[in-house]
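Changelog note: in this version the structure field was regenerated for every chain. One regenerated record is shown below for reference.
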Amino acid sequence: MIQIKDLTRYYGSILGVDNISFRLKRGTTLGLLGPNGAGKSTIIRMLAGTLMPTAGKVFMTESLADPSSLEFKKHLGYLPETAPLYSQMPVDKYLKFVSQVKGVPAKKQQECLERVLSQCQLEDVVDRRIGRLSKGYRQRVGLAQALINDPSLLILDEPTAGLDPQQTNEFRKLIRSMQGQRTVLLSTHILPEVQLLCSHVIIINKGKIAAQGKIDGLLAQDPSQQRFHLEIRGPSREVLNGLEKLQDIQSVTLVRKTDKDQFVYLLISNNTTDPRDQLIHLIAGHEWQLLELRPNHQELEKLFLAAISETMEDESIQFSV
């Protein structure tokens, strides 16, 4: 749906975004990750049309419309990190005003207003002034203004920043409810939020793409291996010796102690044999206690840290989004 090609932005002599390209397919929820100053907000602003690129293009693949055109804006919903709200206006009047600015036909404005009030759960505060609302409700109003024109592309820049845990949870539910209905680009520095909400991820570091692809694909482990997280109560030396003697085991690592005679282990085995039946017999035969057994997958945090520390080679991390 959206093509980003060779996008570059300088601030004077400082390079903010360095020749990035990716494609955002219809219905995708893409998380844009990166440390502070990596270039995320610059990319977001160029996609939303509030900042012109120094070089490169952003365009809709169907119409070739770019962010400066009315055609592009007609399909765009944008919630910047600081929502563009008028604190003295009541919620309903503000949203009607936004619908007019966005060119929603007069006969559809009431219908669109009722839709976003319901979607964003704003019915109870519809006639209250925005400035008197809590931070969580103001964010909902910000999301409602982004949705009022029923956009096919929704761009959200740090949408849960400053919210308390309950407000964050409610806001994430709203975003999840739209999955598959719209193309969503979510910029955040909260890794669990990306894993919870997004199907794809792009990691930005120093203005460049450090890693991109489907989250499941990026976090997939070596297909020839199985990795298991074990927590066992029993003497660690005996447990290690017993685990290492299991069939097709590649390695066993003692990760940490959690209590007296209670330890966490990482077990890596060949993919040809499932070691779990062997584990149960081993533990039962020694009267140890198995407290936890689960597959161990690579974590997004480790991928993120590896990407921004430039320890990953480009050819091993570039995927089609």
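Spot check on this record: The first helix runs from residue 40 to 48. The mean pLDDT is 87.
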